Amino acid sequence: MNTSPSTRTPRRARHAAGAALALALAGAGLGLGAPPAAADTVTVGYTCTGPGAPGDVQTLALTVNAPASIPQGATAQLTLSASTNLSVPIDVPARAVTAELDLALGGAASGTATATGFTNDQAVPSGSGVTLTGGTASVQLDAAGTVTFTPGTARIHVFGVTVECAVDGTAPVAASTEVTAAG
């Protein structure tokens, strides 16, 4: 393996660009099945750590689609998207960014579900905001009642750099599903 300065410099530049992009994406913070409930977009503040992570609170606009209702014991299929107006510092190829987002279950359920599969479907030109789509999670809901889904920790991966972002303060409920009692 050649480790001359001329081969290390491009690698360092790529790592630095990846860290800068992860920083920009972290600045954003980051339903199938039954008929979906009306999806609202919530804004969540995040504090991020990792290479190039910003030192201040950043925001992520997050949309969670959940079924309006499902029968007790069924599985709720959720779809998610996230976006930011924060500009990326470099051109980003399509599918170069991936992410996961934890959702806290509340109301008639407890625990955490992790949405995976987020990516940027389109190339993102330098200076543009980023939208990540394709996030999905499946949650079996065994107790009757209203179940809420609240955004939690996000992990963003780009060019080999991972930034982890924790909710700053209290996140709003992003969606809910009514679990109807088995007849």
Could you list some keywords that capture this structure?
single chain, 183 residues, mainly beta, 8-stranded antiparallel barrel, 10 strands, 12% helix
Question: Helix content range of the residues, please?
Answer: 10-25%
Low-confidence stretches: 1-21, 23-34
Q: DSSP helix count?
A: 1
Structural class: mainly beta
- How do the strands of the widest beta sheet line up side by side? 1-2-4-7-6-5-8-9
Strand fraction: over 45%
- What Rg do the Cα atoms give? 18 Å
Number of strands: 10
Helix-strand pattern: HEEEEEEEEEE
| Distance linking N and C termini | 67 Å
Indicate the overall shape: elongated
Largest sheet: 8 strands, antiparallel, barrel
Q: What integer is the average pLDDT?
A: 83
Task: Give a description of the structure.
The protein is mainly beta and 183 residues long. Helices cover 12% and strands 48% of the residues. The chain contains one helix and ten strands, in the order αββββββββββ. The chain has one helix at 5-26; strands at 41-49, 58-65, 69-71, 75-84, 97-107, 111-119, 130-140, 145-158, 161-167, 175-180. Strands 1-2-4-7-6-5-8-9 form an eight-stranded antiparallel beta barrel. Strand 1 and strand 2 form a beta hairpin. The longest helix has 22 residues, at 5-26. The protein is elongated. The termini are far apart. Residues 1-21 and 23-34 have low confidence and may be disordered.
